TrEMBL record, chain B:
<dbReference type="GO" id="GO:0004364">
    <property type="term" value="F:glutathione transferase activity"/>
</dbReference>
<dbReference type="InterPro" id="IPR040075">
    <property type="entry name" value="GST_N_Theta"/>
</dbReference>
<dbReference type="InterPro" id="IPR051369">
    <property type="entry name" value="GST_Theta"/>
</dbReference>
<dbReference type="InterPro" id="IPR040079">
    <property type="entry name" value="Glutathione_S-Trfase"/>
</dbReference>
<feature type="domain" description="GST C-terminal">
    <location>
        <begin position="88"/>
        <end position="223"/>
    </location>
</feature>
<protein>
    <recommendedName>
        <fullName>glutathione transferase</fullName>
        <ecNumber>2.5.1.18</ecNumber>
    </recommendedName>
</protein>
<dbReference type="Pfam" id="PF02798">
    <property type="entry name" value="GST_N"/>
</dbReference>
<comment type="similarity">
    <text>Belongs to the GST superfamily. Theta family.</text>
</comment>
<dbReference type="InterPro" id="IPR036249">
    <property type="entry name" value="Thioredoxin-like_sf"/>
</dbReference>
<keyword id="KW-0808">Transferase</keyword>
<feature type="domain" description="GST N-terminal">
    <location>
        <begin position="1"/>
        <end position="82"/>
    </location>
</feature>
<dbReference type="InterPro" id="IPR004045">
    <property type="entry name" value="Glutathione_S-Trfase_N"/>
</dbReference>
<dbReference type="GO" id="GO:0006749">
    <property type="term" value="P:glutathione metabolic process"/>
</dbReference>
<dbReference type="InterPro" id="IPR004046">
    <property type="entry name" value="GST_C"/>
</dbReference>
<dbReference type="InterPro" id="IPR036282">
    <property type="entry name" value="Glutathione-S-Trfase_C_sf"/>
</dbReference>
<comment type="subunit">
    <text>Homodimer.</text>
</comment>
<dbReference type="InterPro" id="IPR010987">
    <property type="entry name" value="Glutathione-S-Trfase_C-like"/>
</dbReference>
Length: 128, 240
């Protein structure tokens, strides 16, 4: 989420090498495949037939790259169906309320220099 | 078929599970998965753990991955002494807190430190840029400071006054860079004292037995080309 279009380029005004982003998205894809194959499988939810804390942890993670424009659910109908179930269990309003801020991250104005200085050291490791 | 534990004692989380099971007298069949021979990639092992990692557990038809999940499953099933994973709400939360933090912090830096200092140059014959190693060791140092300041503090053990699974997970991690020659305990008397306490609680013999393989890692002959090809892809990410 930080590398794509969003936090580094837009907010911090820092260019991310295309190969870094490509490698990260490949890693994300690999993890999504494991999520589908090892955890979700043919179940309704990540850890079994009922929603658990595992689903909340997973869905909030996936919404992160989604907020940066990554089409996480588009090519993965199994995950998309699971997302619908989780949203329904949580309740659409609560789900949207929880994600309102991150979905507006593309509208953030660039950070002022003081903030950049403050944040840069701790987010450098996200550039790999 | 009873409980089977799929382990390689070269892996930190495998050691934590091994020590826990042995210390608590939990009967199990040890199934050795030799990581440096690439055995974690076999089709047979994928049936046990499709994530292709150790440790893994098979209890009848039930398979389980992830060392933390395995430790907690074993502590619940075999009703081990309370201090390992205390019933008390807040005491348990402290253990949970350590177990959650360590994955992306101490575990990450201990694995990379050991691989960059030892495994890449000695076993895989691959040079690691000095600035990469320096950066990793700085990161390790930062995590050790957090371990001392945020978790251990003035307590005898990582999550409180008694040894818990958090200590097993922590000590097996720290022994990883130690095996590669990093003087983790030398300049940190607080951690060194904690280590003594953990070793005493676990029992010196069991502790040494669990660490015998990793402490001999510097004597490993270089990997043959076939093994290098097999292992390289999955360890590239450790070069950062």
């Amino acid at each position: 989420m930080w590398q794509k279009q969003m936090m580094f380029p837009v907010f911090l005004g820092e260019q991310v090498p295309p190969e870094t982003l490509a490698s990260t998205l490949a890693e994300l894809d690999r993890c999504l495949q494991l999520l589908e194959d090892k955890f979700l499988k043919d179940q309704d939810f990540v850890a079994g037939p009922h929603i658990s804390v595992a689903d909340l942890v997973a869905i909030t993670e996936l919404m992160h790259p989604v907020s940066a424009g990554c089409q996480v659910f588009k090519s993965r109908p199994k995950l998309a169906a699971w997302r619908q179930r989780v949203e329904a269990e949580v309740g659409k309003d609560l789900f949207q309320e929880a994600h309102a801020a991150v979905m507006k991250v593309e509208d953030l104005p660039p950070a002022d220099p003081a903030i950049k200085e403050k944040l840069k050291p701790s987010v450098q490791c996200l550039l790999q | 078929m009873g409980l089977e534990l799929y382990l390689d004692l070269l892996s930190q989380p495998s050691r934590a599970v091994y020590i826990f099971a042995k210390k608590n007298g939990i009967p199990f069949e040890l199934r050795s998965v030799e990581l440096l021979k690439g055995q974690q990639h076999s089709d047979a092992f994928a049936q046990v753990n499709p994530l292709k990692k150790v440790p893994a557990l098979k209890d009848g038809d039930f398979t389980l991955a992830e060392s933390v999940a395995i430790l907690l499953y074993l502590s619940r099933k075999y009703e081990v002494p309370d201090h390992w994973y205390p019933q008390d709400l807040q005491a348990r939360a402290r253990v949970d807190e350590y177990l959650a933090w360590q994955h992306t912090a101490l575990r990450s830096s201990c694995t990379r430190a050991m691989w960059q200092k030892m495994m890449f140059p000695v076993f895989l014959g691959e040079q690691v840029p000095p600035e990469t190693l320096a950066s990793t060791l700085a990161e390790l140092d930062r995590c050790l400071q957090l371990l001392e300041d945020k978790f251990l503090k003035d307590q005898d053990f990582v999550a409180g006054p008694h040894i818990s699974v958090a200590d097993l997970v922590a000590i097996t991690e720290l022994m990883h860079p130690v095996s590669a020659g990093c003087q983790v305990f030398k300049s940190r008397p607080k951690l060194a004292a904690w280590r003594q306490r953990v070793e005493a609680e676990v029992g010196k013999d069991l502790f040494q037995e669990a660490h015998a393989a990793v402490m001999k890692v510097e004597d490993l002959p270089p990997a043959d080309p076939a093994i290098k090809e097999k292992l390289k892809p999955s360890v590239q990410c450790l070069l950062q």
